[in-house]
Amino acid sequence: MTQPAVTIKIEQLPHGKGLALPAYETAGAAGMDLRAALPEGTPVIIGPMGRSLIPTGIGIELPTGFEAQIRPRSGLALKYGVTVLNSPGTIDCDYRGEIKVILVNLSDCPVEIHRDDRIAQMVVAASAQANITLVDALSLSKRGTAGFGSTGKR
Q: What DSSP designation does 78 have?
């Protein structure tokens, strides 16, 4: 069953002018590519194990009940060892500032990020706020308190 499209408003900031707006590359894509809104001819160099905050030149307005998740691009991670440090980053529906992406270089070589490079992808998803209820004990379950890696045991 196809979900209805969600409308988000996008503001292109002055330093983002001329860059393509986020868009789905294929009909089945879940994420829209975000691009680096760096000054032309002034790349950011991220050293080995270094990180940098990269501007995208856009701000968004999401409907209530939605978030945007900022995720790595698999090609950037595989080819260059560059990924989104706080993956997934969350853009709340009431945030109106510029989207910026924290990139980390996990390789042993410096990596250059240039204007218009596709640096991350943005996935729009429904989100819910939880009501917290304090209880004396939680209900029992088959898994119980078994932790990390416990569901893969035979």
A: H
List pLDDT tens digits, range 87-106.
Answer: 999 999 999 999 999 999 99
* End-to-end Cα distance, the chain: 35
All domains of the chain, ordered by start, with CATH? 9-130 (2.70.40.10)
Give residue 150's pLDDT.
66
**Top-confidence residue, 20 or 146:** 20
Closest CA to 16 of 32, 35, 33: 35
CA dihedral 22, 26, 28, 33 (to 10 degrees): -30
Q: For the chain, give me the number of helices (H) and strands (E)?
A: 1, 10
As to burial, measured by CB atoms within 10 angstroms (0-12 exposed, 13-18 middle, 19+ buried), residue 50 is middle
pLDDT at 145 over 90: no
Cβ contact 10:22 at 8 Å: yes
State yes or no: pLDDT of 1 exceeds 60: no
